[in-house]
Amino acid sequence: MHSFLKNNVFSISFGTSLSKLVGCIRQIFIAAAFGVGVTYDAFNYAYIIPGFLLIIIGGINGPLHNAVVAVLTPLNKKNGGIVLTQVSIKLSILLIGLAILIYINSSLLIELLAPNLSYEAKSIATYQLKILTPCIPLSGFIGLSFGALNSQRKFFLSSISPAITSLTTIFFILLSWIINKENAYSHFFRYTGLLAFATLTGTLIQFVVQISEINKIGLLRLKSKFQLLNDEERRIFKLIIPASISSGLSQINVFIDMFFASSFQGAASGLAYGNFLIQAPLGILSNSLILPLLPKFSKFRSDKDYIGLQKKLISGIEYCFLTTIFLAAFFITFNNQIVQLVFQRGSFDYSAALKVKNILIAYGVGIPFYLYRDLLVRTYYSIEKTTFPFKSSFAGIVLNIFFDWLLIGAPINNFGNLSPYNFGVIGIILSSVIVNFIVCVLLSFNLRNENIHLPNLDLFKKITLMTLAAFIDSSLCFSILKTTNNFNSNLGEFLLLIFGSLTFFVIYFFLTKFLKVNKFKVYKKKI
Fold first, then answer.
1. How far is residue 3's CA from residue 465's CA, in Å, rounded to a whole number?
2. What is the pTM of this model?
């Protein structure tokens, strides 16, 4: 059993790491080809709806994936194959109808999502959305096959599968550069819908690979008769619908932000690049800090040991802020080196780099509240108290509209502005930071109603000391960077980032130890 678990963990970790690496290389290629401009702006708007469905329905650990794993795992291959085939047919019919509606109304949808986008960008976005609509029915089967493969303990393909689209995008860009050497950064990339075609092709290849694997393990039963919903199918759809609504709430804020961002040229591109840089380390922190706590919370709850749960949660909160404040200060301090090394080449020029650097700093400020909210929401779910997080998510949507409107103004002239100030693209990120902070406060204080009492004043004091340590650390490293900021090569910037990161970590570690807010212990044997 131990060997089985270890092999599965290795398969998932290795496959996921490869996918993340390939995704990073894809983003580097996109930056070099498109920079921060109209084409990538248009693609980000065109991808909102298909991307939403690919994440919610077709994503790993999405509602469809989890529902299929739960239902198919106890069934034998014959019955499991019949259920999978029947659900695939019904879901595909539903999603094909949705895709047709989106294709017909693509221009109207882009107008609704981005009312203030330029005419050129709207035209490109509409064209790309039409290309991407076949991804919608494909997302249904991809989500089903993820669940089916995992129910049969086939974890590696599920983990590596997202890399297919990334590799396809890289191939398309390389091929375009080879064919159009003289015009590599010009009109070819602006009007061909290359990113949309690459995404559709990658999704198709992913579909073919997964359907082949499903057939190989005996779960594809095309000869089974069409029938109405049986008990297992009802269970799958019953699990999918509420989970999809809950998961979709966070995506609604993406729609809202993109709606307001349409007032600024290059905003969608800049937000995409900045968010990409932030999400990778945040995902690692979330998996390493939060996931191990959830089973313990559930056990404390089942044992009605609320004191034990409270102590473990307080410890989790302290580690959450200790690591995220470090990460926030790191991005703020080394934003120049990070953006230059990852993106600044080809069409991604100095002005594009400057825009993304500012966006990265704004995202960095919000990192602690983003992860803390994630920890609190998952805590509520682990103790099976889902009503208040659900209500707070709705409140967050309303607050996000208000603060977007307040900080940057409405993209539709008839609605006017709520304040005389306009913070531009940065205002969109600051709005999310404020909303996450408010929701965190609401979730924290409501824990009292669940018999969990947090020492808020003590936690506030420790968080303040952690922030002070990060400020001192950042100030010292800024001073060092000023004296060594004469490198003109990527190698020099890379070495500066490596040694700067080590210096930054060591200073922060010892400062937080000195201030007695760092509980991490270093063991010689482990080193």
1. 43
2. 0.81
Give the amino acid at 6. Answer: K
The dihedral built from the CA positions of residue 429, 435, 441 and 447, taken in this order, carries a sign that is negative
Of 212, 216, 168, which Cα lies nearest the Cα of 194?
Answer: 168
Closest-CA residue to 163 (of 8, 276, 21): 21
Which of 375, 519, 343, 490 is CA-nearest to residue 439? 375
pLDDT value of position 2: 43
Look at residues 191, 186, 188, 169 and name the one whose alpha carbon lies nearest to residue 125. 191
Predicted pLDDT of residue 487: 58
CA separation for the pair 47, 53 (Å, rounded): 10
Residue 106, pLDDT score: 93
State how far the Cα of 130 lies from the Cα of 132, in Å rounded to an integer: 5
Give the separation between CA 372 and CA 316, rounded to whole angstroms: 9
According to DSSP H, which parts of 217-291 are helical? 231-261, 267-285
Q: CA-CA-CA-CA torsion for 109, 113, 118, 124, nearest 10 degrees? A: -50
Q: How far apart are CA 50 and CA 489, in angstroms?
A: 39
Q: How far is residue 490's CA from residue 332's CA, in Å, rounded to a whole number?
A: 20
Candidates 189, 242, 220; CA nearest to 77 is 220
Q: CB under 8 Å to 289, separation ≥6 — which residues?
A: 316, 319, 320, 323, 371, 375
* Residue 328 tokens, joined: 């926030």
* Residues of the chain falling short of pLDDT 50: 1-7, 184-186, 523-527
Give residue 140's pLDDT. Answer: 75
